[in-house]
Amino acid sequence: MLNEKKIRLMTRLSLFEEYEGKEEIKIDRYYKIDYIRYQILKSMLCVTLGYVLILLAVFVYQSEYILDNITSIAYKSVGVYILTGYLFLLLFYSFITGIVSCFRYERSRKKMKKYKKNLKTLKLLCEEESELK
């Protein structure tokens, strides 16, 4: 005979694994601090790449002016502005990424706790069914 409770539970678990829980299962592999560090590292890499691309675009756009005034540009102050802007963006995005990652990890843990509870229930149902046979 078919156990309806077991079938419903298996269906719910399967749907979670297939759609809603793909990201949660990936996040569950990490400790909280490792997940947050990994997300911040990815964010820092993206900020650095984006900043370099923006600087390159500005340089290309202003190349005529730069080449005309190559001897009169205050390179030290320009470098300080570029470095200050980069550090500000890096810290800002790292802070935001840390907060978002922390909330995302906590939300994922709650979902995974429910998922693991359902897995234990399924295991108990399977054990009960095997004992009856």
TrEMBL record:
The chain crosses the membrane at residues 40-61, 81-103. Residues 105-132 form a coiled coil. This is Uncharacterized protein. Keywords: Coiled coil, Membrane, Transmembrane, Transmembrane helix. It comes from [Clostridium] polysaccharolyticum.
